C-alpha cells in the first residue's frame, strides 16, 4: 500500500489548465522532490494533494483511500502542509501555533494532554524555536516563522508531509538543520517537497519529479533527472553537473555565460591539467569553438570536464608518462588548430612533453592563460619546464589573465604571434 498515489490528475484554475495527466506515488520513508520553473504548477500539485484545490479528473489515494472520502479531521491527522506563504493572520504565540498541529488529534471537546504538550515541546526543540515559545508570531523574523510552521507540521505527526519550499527563507545552516530533521523523520513517513535549489533537492531527495508545461517531464533518481540536457531544456540554462565529491549525488554548477558563437569555425587546442582548464573548456565550448584537449591523466579534473562536455581528449592512465602514440595524436590536433592555449598548470616530468611539443609550432598563435590573472606555471621539473616556457614566451606567446579577453583574442580573424 502506498501512502500516497496520484493517478492521471488534471487541475485547472477556472478555464486555465495548470496540471495534466500527473501520475506518481511516494513510498513510506521516501522524500520526493518536486522541481520545475516558476509557474509550472508545483504549489498547485501540493494544493491538490492536500485538497485545497479540486482536481478535474484523476485519483489521489492515501493508503488506497480516495482523498475525497476522508473527513477534515482525518485528512489533517494524515497530511501536514508547510506552505510557501508564511504569514499568520492572528497574533498567536509561537507555542499556540505549534499546538495547532495537535488539534486534529485532540477530540472536539477535549483539551490538550500532557502527551500533546510533550510532542509540541519536542517539535519546537527540533525546529529550533523553543526559545521563542512565548513570543508573538508577528514579532519574529520570516525565517523563524517558517521554522514555527515546520514545528507545527512536526507536532501534527502526519503520515504525509507536504513542504512548499519550506526552507526558502532560512539561512544556510537552518536550511540544512531543518532538512536533516525532515530526512530523519522521513524514515517513518512520506515526504513531498517543492525545491527551487536543485542541489538541496539532489542531496535530500530519493527521487525527483520535474514539471514542465503542465506535465511530468522527468522523474527518477536525482542523477537521472538532473542532467545538463534536462536543465537546459527546462530552465534554459547551461550548467556543469558533477557527482558531489562527498556524496556522489549530482551537483549542479550554473554557468552564467551566454552562448555567443564567437568561435564558430575556429579550432583551439588546450593544454591544461589539475583543474586549471575546466572553466575555459566550458567557455570555449559555449562560444562555439571546436576544442581539443590533452594530454591529460584520466584522474584529472580537466579530463572529467572534457569528457563531460564531449570534447575530444587524449589521456593516459595514472602514473603513466605521455606515450609516443598520445603525442602523435595531439600533434594531429596541433597541426589543425588555429590557436593553442596553455593554462597555468603544474608541470612535472609526467606532462613536460605537453609543452615541449609546442616548440615545434612556432608560428601558431599561443596564449598562456590563467583565470586569476597571474600567469604562473608551477615548475615541478627542477627548472626544465621554466626553460621551455621561457623559450615559448620568447617566440611571442601572449599572456592572458581573463577568460573574456582570451575568448575575444581567440575569436579575432587575424590572430598571430606578436
Ligand atoms: N489561485 C489562482 N488562480 C488562478 N491562477 C493561479 C492561482 N494560483 C496559481 N495560479 C497560476 O497557476 C500557475 C501555476 O502556479 P503555481 O503556484 O502552482 O506554480 P509554481 O510552480 O509553484 O510556481 P513558483 O515556482 O513561482 O512558486 C501559474 O501560472 C499561476 O499564475
Q: What would you note in describing this structure?
A:
This protein is of the alpha/beta class. It contains 15 helices and 20 strands. The protein has helices at 42-49, 72-78, 94-100, 114-126, 142-155, 172-185, 198-204, 222-225, 228-235, 278-286, 301-309, 324-336, 352-356, 384-394, 403-411, and strands at residues 4-13, 16-26, 31-35, 57-62, 65-66, 79-82, 160-164, 190-194, 207-212, 215-220, 239-243, 250-254, 267-271, 290-297, 313-316, 339-343, 346-347, 366-369, 378-379, 398-400. The strands form five sheets. A six-stranded mixed β-sheet has the order 6-7-8-3-9-10, sandwiched between helices. Strands 15-14-13-16-18-20 form a six-stranded parallel β-sheet, with helices on both faces. Strands 2-1-4-5 form a four-stranded antiparallel β-sheet, with helices on one face. Strand 9 (207-212) and strand 10 form a beta hairpin. Helix 3 runs parallel beside helix 5 (142-155) and helix 10 (278-286) runs parallel beside helix 11 (301-309). The chain is elongated, with a radius of gyration of 28 Å. The model has no long low-confidence stretch (mean pLDDT 89). Bound molecules: adenosine-5'-triphosphate. Adenosine-5'-triphosphate binds next to helix 1. The site of adenosine-5'-triphosphate has 10 residues, from helix 1.
Amino acid at each position: 500500500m502506498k501512502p500516497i498515489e496520484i493517478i492521471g490528475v488534471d487541475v485547472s484554475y477556472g478555464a486555465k489548465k495548470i496540471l495534466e495527466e500527473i501520475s506518481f506515488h511516494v513510498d513510506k520513508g521516501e522524500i520526493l522532490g518536486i522541481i520545475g520553473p516558476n509557474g509550472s504548477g508545483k504549489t498547485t500539485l501540493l494544493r491538490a494533494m492536500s485538497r485545497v484545490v479540486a482536481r478535474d479528473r484523476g485519483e489521489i489515494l492515501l493508503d488506497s483511500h480516495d482523498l475525497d472520502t476522508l473527513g477534515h479531521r482525518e485528512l489533517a491527522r494524515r497530511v501536514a502542509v508547510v506552505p510557501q506563504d508564511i504569514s499568520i493572520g492572528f497574533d498567536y504565540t509561537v507555542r499556540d501555533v505549534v499546538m495547532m498541529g495537535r488539534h486534529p488529534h485532540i477530540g472536539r471537546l477535549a483539551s490538550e494532554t500532557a502527551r500533546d504538550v510533550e510532542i509540541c515541546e519536542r517539535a519546537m526543540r527540533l525546529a529550533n524555536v523553543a526559545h521563542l515559545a512565548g513570543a508573538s508570531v508577528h514579532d519574529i523574523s520570516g525565517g523563524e516563522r517558517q521554522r514555527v510552521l515546520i514545528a507545527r507540521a512536526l507536532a501534527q505527526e502526519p503520515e504525509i508531509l507536504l513542504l512548499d519550499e519550506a526552507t526558502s527563507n532560512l539561512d544556510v545552516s537552518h536550511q540544512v538543520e531543518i532538512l536533516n530533521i525532515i530526512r530523519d523523520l522521513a524514515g517513518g513517513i512520506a515526504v513531498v517537497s517543492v525545491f527551487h535549489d536543485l542541489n538541496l533537492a539532489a542531496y535530500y531527495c530519493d527521487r525527483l519529479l520535474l514539471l514542465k508545461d503542465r506535465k511530468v517531464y522527468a522523474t527518477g533518481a536525482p542523477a537521472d533527472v538532473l542532467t545538463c540536457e534536462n536543465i537546459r531544456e527546462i530552465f534554459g540554462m547551461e550548467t556543469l553537473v558533477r557527482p558531489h565529491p562527498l556524496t556522489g549525488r549530482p551537483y549542479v554548477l550554473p554557468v552564467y555565460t551566454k552562448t555567443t558563437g564567437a568561435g564558430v569555425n575556429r579550432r583551439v587546442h588546450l593544454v591544461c591539467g589539475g583543474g586549471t582548464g575546466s572553466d575555459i573548456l566550458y567557455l570555449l565550448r559555449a562560444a562555439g569553438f571546436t576544442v581539443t584537449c590533452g594530454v591529460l591523466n584520466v584522474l584529472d579534473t580537466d579530463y572529467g570536464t572534457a569528457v563531460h562536455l564531449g570534447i575530444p581528449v587524449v589521456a593516459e592512465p595514472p602514473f603513466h608518462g605521455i606515450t609516443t602514440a598520445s603525442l602523435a595524436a595531439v600533434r594531429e590536433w596541433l597541426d589543425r588548430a588555429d590557436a593553442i592555449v596553455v593554462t597555468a598548470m603544474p608541470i612535472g616530468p609526467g606532462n613536460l612533453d605537453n609543452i615541449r611539443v609546442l616548440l615545434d609550432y612556432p608560428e601558431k598563435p599561443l596564449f598562456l592563460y590563467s583565470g586569476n590573472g597571474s600567469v604562473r606555471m608551477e615548475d615541478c621539473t627542477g627548472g626544465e619546464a621554466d626553460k621551455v616556457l621561457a623559450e615559448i614566451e620568447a617566440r611571442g606567446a601572449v599572456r592572458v589573465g581573463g577568460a573574456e579577453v582570451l575568448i575575444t583574442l581567440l575569436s579575432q580573424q587575424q590572430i598571430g604571434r606578436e
